[in-house]
Amino acid sequence: MQIKEKALDAKGCFGNLIFLGGVIVLVLLLIFGVPVFVDYLHMKQMEKRINYVCNSPVAIVYVIMALHVMITLYWLFSKQGLFPDRMHREQGLVCRLPKKIRVVVALVTMALYLGTIGLYAACYDQIDDNGLGRYRLWRQTRYAYTDVACYQLYAKLDGTLGIQFRMKDGSKFEYYGNISSYDIDESQYPNEEDDYVVELAKNLTALGVPCKVANEKRLYKGLTYDYWDDVAEKILAVSNVQK
């Protein structure tokens, strides 16, 4: 009997490992796989122009919804329920809804998830050779580089460099250092987005657009790695800096 119990326990542990591996793959697919696919569609639509596409305004909503889908579906159809006590073979929070209601809840949950994918795909900011654009579902706003009032360098909480563009009408765009996809000609810009933002700073300086840095020492102190210091120095070197 003890040998059988040990065999069952070993089988159960192996099954748990497979289940855990499946959950990890699902997390990667739901949270990262779909955004990569959406970014690919953006690039195809934009005909590979030099650009950034920033989906960060709704990225957190998408991530939360992806996690919600996984937890809800597991709760609806798992016999063990959420947070089971496997050591004592006790069930966790088991769903008591009728089977038909479970299916309805699952379908509604998946519909909401698909809706957030559409929201993620249709709500983004863009920067390209022609200027800057804000896309929010059916609302589209385009700005030329002459509409930029100034841009500011700052250190993000994770120690990376951020750039915020401020328009003359008060709108703000944050690109560098955010969750973004990009499609840049490596033959022209070997370091891709890093070289591109330096070239962009040169072009804005030529148009008379200033770069505002409140405190350079504080900026460099907030940047975690020397790499970001180098990028900031390159941008400041070609910018019209105003403190």
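The above is record 1. Record 2 follows with the same two-line structure.
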Amino acid sequence: MEKFSKLKELIAGVEADADKFYNSGNGAAGTRVRKAMQDLKGLAQEIRSEVTDKKNAK
């Protein structure tokens, strides 16, 4: 559950940059959004693996 909380924090943290990129055309904010999305992808994969391992351990 700790990683899931971290995932939510990461999404909340990138929201301002996403707004700057999509609504203001700020290119640097777009770069930060792309990096955050890559981090989210990795964290989501870790969560998927944990869920699968826990499910299969039963």
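Helices lie at 2-24, 27-56.
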